[in-house]
């Protein structure tokens, strides 16, 4: 039973909060007491829309244009620059030859598990998003029944991954119906939900959502997404506690981003704070080469000293795996450094 100190949110709270989100760069800057003149390079009319919930904006330091949370969400003119090697679809998720998108609503990349595109929407528009150019019109929510039929016919699928956009932007009734449909497929043993909402809009963890996940036949894992310890506070802790107390396995994935978390101490603190909130670090992703994101990019030479220091300071169970995703890969690909650097890897 969930104690009073760990009550889920009211079903309407998160939707009201989302309606009040910042959608204009100037409005966000005014709220944060940052003069537009001081925000050099800001894009007031971005092609990729700005979207920031107010609760997330409240974690940004007022007056600080360099705040690491602000840098994740603020639209800049540099996003419109063309950089060699940065492409619209670096993971080739729209590549029919790789077989990823042969069924509307599904990306079947890896053996034994399949990713379902539940919705194109997010609660926050991260400027480094690798799916900012994804062809969501080819994966419409109304085609969800086609995806479920395909999963039903393929008994090798043991895990269904709910992604998007962000699957938790489905309302409680829609999420309950989808979980029930997947639960009805006996060969599916696990449901994994990839969502940034427990971090950026923790009010989304409602009583009805908790009940749906608690009553699921399949084992539920939720992979949240936090890049910086400043994103975590007492409100995220309450939401994550509600999920943990009903047996949801909580993991975190981060992206290594220039100017946001590209120092070991920030990532060490993030891992420790995640653990305090009941979440295990899972992946630390190398950034994808997506058009408009070159200013966030770090290469392996940048990543190696950061990861080496993390290894020195964290126990093995708090050290995320440093990986990149390659088109056509059988799984995430670990970033390999020189052998001499790996001799003291085991904790």
Notes on the protein architecture:
It contains 11 helices and 9 strands. Helix 6 runs parallel beside helix 8 and helix 10 (264-276) packs across helix 11 (300-313). It has a single domain, classed as Aldolase class I (TIM Barrel, Alpha-Beta Barrel). With 347 residues, it is α/β, with parallel strands linked by helices. Mean pLDDT is 89; it is low at 1-5 and 340-347. The chain has a 9-stranded mixed sheet. 28% of the residues lie in helices and 13% in strands.
Give a brief rundown of this model.
The protein is an alpha/beta fold and 347 residues long.
Helix coverage percent of residues? 25-40%
**Mean pLDDT across every amino acid position:** 89
- How many β strands by DSSP? 9
The main β sheet shows up as: 9 strands, mixed
Label the CATH architecture.
Answer: Alpha-Beta Barrel
Q: Round the Cα radius of gyration to an integer and report it.
A: 20 Å
- CATH topology type: TIM Barrel
Bulk shape: globular
Number of helix segments?
11
Number of domains: 1
Percentage beta strand: 5-15%
Order of helices and strands: HHHHEEHEHEHHEHEHEHEE
Q: What is the CATH superfamily?
A: Aldolase class I
Task: Tell me the distance between the termini.
Answer: 36 Å
Q: Which class of secondary structure composition applies to the elements?
A: alpha/beta
Taking strands numbered 1, 2, ... along the chain, how are they ordered across the largest sheet?
Answer: 1-2-3-4-5-6-7-8-9
CATH class: Alpha Beta
Low-confidence stretches: 1-5, 340-347
């Amino acid at each position: 039973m969930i104690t009073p100190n760990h009550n889920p949110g009211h079903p309407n709270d998160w939707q009201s909060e989302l309606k009040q989100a910042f959608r204009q760069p100037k409005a966000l800057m005014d709220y944060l007491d940052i003069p537009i003149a001081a925000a050099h390079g800001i894009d007031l009319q971005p092609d990729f829309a700005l979207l920031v919930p107010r609760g997330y904006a409240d974690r940004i330091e007022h007056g600080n244009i360099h705040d690491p949370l602000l840098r994740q969400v603020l639209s800049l003119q540099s996003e419109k620059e063309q950089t060699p090697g940065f492409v619209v679809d670096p993971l080739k998720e729209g590549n029919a030859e790789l077989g990823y998108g042969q069924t509307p609503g599904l990306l079947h990349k890896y053996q034994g598990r399949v990713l379902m595109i539940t919705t194109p929407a997010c609660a926050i528009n991260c400027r480094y998003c690798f799916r900012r150019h994804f062809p969501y019109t080819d994966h419409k929510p109304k085609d969800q029944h086609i995806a479920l039929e395909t999963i039903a016919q393929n008994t090798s699928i043991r895990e269904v991954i709910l992604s998007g956009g962000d699957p938790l932007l489905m309302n409680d009734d829609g999420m309950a119906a989808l979980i029930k449909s997947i639960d009805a497929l006996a060969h599916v043993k696990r449901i994994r939900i990839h969502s940034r909402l427990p971090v950026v809009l923790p009010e989304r963890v409602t009583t009805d959502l908790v009940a749906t996940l608690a009553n699921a036949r399949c084992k539920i894992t939720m992979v949240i997404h936090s890049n910086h310890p400043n994103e975590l506070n007492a409100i995220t802790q309450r939401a994550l506690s509600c999920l943990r107390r009903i047996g949801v396995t909580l993991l975190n994935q981060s992206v290594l981003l220039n100017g946001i978390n590209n120092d070991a101490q920030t990532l060490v603190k993030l891992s420790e704070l995640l653990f305090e909130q009941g979440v295990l670090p899972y992946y630390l992703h190398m950034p994808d080469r997506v058009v408009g994101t070159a200013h966030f990019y770090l290469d392996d030479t940048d990543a190696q000293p950061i990861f080496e220091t993390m290894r020195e300071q964290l126990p093995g169970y708090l050290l995320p795996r440093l990986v990149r995703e390659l088109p056509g890969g059988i799984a995430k690909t670990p970033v390999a450094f020189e052998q001499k650097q790996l001799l003291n890897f085991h904790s």
